[in-house]
Design a protein that fits this description.
β10 and β11 form a beta hairpin. α5 crosses α7 and α7 crosses α8. By secondary structure, the chain is α/β, with parallel strands linked by helices. The longest helix has 25 residues. It has 9 helices and 13 strands.
């Protein structure tokens, strides 16, 4: 008789370019134990898996051992849910295609799944956060880049190859002035609405305008989105205009996004959401102004309820219940 459904915990792994955070999570979304290893310290993937399993042992002992674990979920850059692989991730030490799910499954003996980090955030929101009970929503992660997870009829959209739903690379500026993007194209949403995009907007606006601003006291190349937020809190018109521009761009793009899955909500997650109304007010206005009339008033614009530092682990862990 299989009692696996009664096992009370799952493992979530948030794999970043620098560090990897493992968490043991219960069905309520409480992280019972957490351990961290360096991702980049292990150029050989087998050494990385071995180090991860060793680091997990004390955490597993706390909850009664591996027999209490139902499954493991991994959120990783370029993670492919269909194949259980990480494929050609630019910011990881391992090149090519890495069979990460199989390696951990063999090492731990529990079913293991992988997906990309934004899809993991969507899974976490649906399992533990503001999207509980929702069957159709879009998760947009605003970090160094812009990621997204699209949920239709209760399922993450993976497409034919596992890589569907990259809204950050939706081109919003098709002119020759479109900002160059790390993906090799120009004018992608990510180049305007990520934390790095906000810093780029700050440099552009500062070079075109002459008013005083606390941002002028900083090295332009080192300005961050947090610096812009601090200046906005002081009422700085330039900082407010930077957020106004960013919110308009993102709100207009979201008005387009609702046309393909008519979501109940678009949920925003990541560092930039800490800007609160400085970002959300222009975003809401642009969204309402540009939404097709049949979709008017249907999609809520929400900020994630998950604690930022825990969300990635919780999101990855949600895969472990599947």
């Amino acid at each position: 008789m299989d009692n696996s459904n009664e096992k009370p915990y799952v493992i979530g792994l948030d794999m970043g370019g620098t560090n990897s955070v493992f968490g043991i999570v219960d069905q309520r979304g409480t992280i019972k134990a957490q351990v961290v290893i360096s991702t980049k310290a292990y150029p050989d993937i087998n050494d990385y898996v071995k180090a991860g399993v060793e680091a997990l042992q004390p955490a597993l002992d706390l909850v009664g051992g591996i027999s209490q674990i139902r499954g493991m979920g991994i959120g990783a850059p370029n993670g492919n849910f269909y194949n259980g692989t990480i494929e050609y991730a630019a910011n990881l030490a391992w090149e090519g295609i890495v069979p990460i799910a199989q390696l951990f499954q063999d090492a731990l003996g529990v079913p293991t799944r992988v997906t990309n980090d934004a899809n993991a955030a969507a899974m976490g929101e649906m399992t533990y956060g503001v999207a509980r009970g929702m069957k159709n929503f879009i998760m947009i992660t605003l970090g160094t880049g812009v990621g997204s997870g699209i949920v239709v009829d209760g399922n993450i959209v993976y497409g034919s190859d596992g890589f569907a739903g990259e809204l950050g690379h939706f081109v919003i500026d098709h002119t020759e002035n479109g900002r160059p993007c790390g993906c090799g194209r120009s004018g992608c949403l990510e180049t305007y609405c990520s934390a790095t995009g906000v810093a780029r907007t700050a440099r552009e606006i500062l070079s075109k305008r002459t008013e005083d601003s606390p941002l002028r006291q900083l090295d332009p190349d080192k300005i961050t989105s947090y610096d812009v937020f601090k200046a906005a809190e002081q009422g700085d018109p330039i900082a407010l205009d930077i957020f106004d521009f960013t919110g308009k761009v993102l709100g207009t793009a979201c008005a387009d996004f609702v046309t393909f899955n008519s979501p109940e909500a678009i949920i925003f997650f990541g560092g930039l959401t800490k800007a609160g109304d400085y970002l959300m007010k222009p975003l809401r206005e642009a969204f309402e102004k540009n939404t097709l009339n049949i979709f008017q008033g249907k999609a809520k614009l929400l900020i994630s309820s998950l604690n930022g530092s825990e969300a990635a682990v919780l999101g990855a862990s949600a895969l472990g219940w599947e």
